[in-house]
Amino acid sequence: MAVFCKTMVDGLLLTLSVTLLWWGADGHGNGLGMREVPGRATVNLGQDRDIWRPLIHKTVNLSEISSIKSSFQFRTYDPEGVIFYGDTKNGEDWFVLSLRDGIPLMQINKEDMLVSVVGGPKLNDGKWHTLEVSNYGKFVILEVDGSGGLVVGMQSKQSQEVISGKLRLALGGILTNKEMIIQFGPQMDGCVREGNWLNLSKPWESEVDDLWPCYENIQPGSYFPGTGFAIFNTSVFPVEDDNEVKIELWGDFSQMDGTILSIELPGRERIFALVANNNTKEVTVFGDENIPLNSTFNRLVLTFGAAFLRILHEENESKTTELSVHPLSHPVQLTTWKDGHLAIGGLLGEGGDNIASNFLTGCLKKIQVQGKDLDLDLAVKKMSVSSHSCPA
């Protein structure tokens, strides 16, 4: 286990303290096609890439390791995703720290052992937390804000070997296969800062040119910076016995600009879309007829029935617009709903000349489809969207 101390803990420790976040990580090229990022930099773990691929990583010789402790500060509203990864032996022995349901989850693969443990306080409250991972004898310890959060004990029956070679560290992804005891979604909308990674001075390396910024203040929601959107298959939102489709959106619609959502169904030339115009302070419903709404509301409910479209644009029923629609000309035909696509933050297909096709800029504080919260991390395609936090 002392060996594990020098391997996994060489690959599992971190620290971050406190700093304001108006910027992403500063960095510069290293001449090898990689961007260097300082170890103590503020880093947003969200980024457009393969969902398991680390955002930043580094490789060091085990002989360079002088500390069995790492610490960092971490902040998120995201309940699930990878935070930190380390391995030796080209990924044969590895350690992963992640969140699941907002609670820390450590998983370790070492020789003949595969161990997982989950526990400690929920960390997805949007506040900065100091995490410290260390190794003492047979135990790997995670402390949260100075208190013991999680302890893993390991004892192998195999003879211990002296580990040499390389240690790989990564943030926001993993470098090994995905064979774990507890499966989880890897995408993490969160930030780390003030990292002390095993007392190593070597910078991180990133294949991404521009890291996303970490904002000083954040609030729960999904943030669309005007450069991307999320697409879902409508088959994951089944039509219930009432034969209706209900979509609810929360946010300050007067501060939004661009396509909030669009729906594309097979056999329909016309795409249904909801578009905000920050200049006119209107939100327009584009269907078989176009309906402009004053954007001074914070909640919008669209209910599609077999022969009607109901639009509720406020907290009470007095701000309701209901249209009687012939089933064959319905903006969303329920008979083909299961074979369509729903986009949040952008326009699907061509959409027609009179629909603004620009991506959404703004924050949707909450999204529900068929009465269930929508997690943008589950989209079949997502780009340039912070799925769980917005700048406040």
TrEMBL record:
Signal sequence coordinates: 1-27
Cellular-component GO terms for this entry: extracellular region
PROSITE patterns: LAM_G_DOMAIN (PS50025)
A molecular function (GO) term: steroid binding
Domain Laminin G, first and last residues per copy: 40-214
InterPro entries: ConA-like_dom_sf, GAS-SHBG-PROS, Laminin_G
Coiled-coil region(s): none
Record key words, sorted: Disulfide bond, Glycoprotein, Lipid-binding, Repeat, Secreted, Signal, Steroid-binding
Pfam family, one: Laminin_G_1
Principal location: secreted
Domain of life, source organism: Eukaryota
Localization (cell): Secreted
CDD domains recorded: LamG (cd00110)
Subunit note: Homodimer.
Cited function: Functions as an androgen transport protein, but may also be involved in receptor mediated processes. Each dimer binds one molecule of steroid. Specific for 5-alpha-dihydrotestosterone, testosterone, and 17-beta-estradiol. Regulates the plasma metabolic clearance rate of steroid hormones by controlling their plasma concentration.
Protein name, per record: Sex hormone-binding globulin
Lineage per the UniProt record: Eukaryota, Metazoa, Chordata, Craniata, Vertebrata
